[in-house]
Amino acid sequence: MVAFGLPLLNTSTLQFAPKELDYDEETNRHSNEIKPGNIISLNLDYKQMGVGGDNSWGALVHNEYTLPAKEYSYKFRFRPFFLEEEPIIKLSKYVF
Predict the structure, then answer these.
(1) With bands split at pLDDT 50, 70 and 90, how would you rate the model's confidence at 28?
(2) What pTM value is reported for the model?
(3) In this structure, are strands 10-14 and 41-45 parallel, antiparallel, or unpaired?
(4) Own/partner pairs, 87-93, CB within 8 angstroms, 24+ separation
(5) Which stretch of DSSP H or E encloses residue 92?
(6) Which residues pair with 5 in a beta bridge?
């Protein structure tokens, strides 16, 4: 499947459930210790905001990387594809 967005989408895939990224106090496990599993998670996001400024000691996100608190909307469509039919580059430029 290919996902097309209007406007463009930020996408990511994980070989585990997103909840696995949460720190686990009981086992003291960190996200870098996650082992790939049988689940593939697909994330489709309209936009993403930065997570911090210039250092890791509490600097705020720069204004140009923030998302103001307001209502956002976007559309996306899934479309099956077969490699022998269309090159992925052509699909990446598809507009609906």
Answers:
(1) confident
(2) 0.58
(3) antiparallel
(4) 91/2
(5) helix 88-92
(6) 76
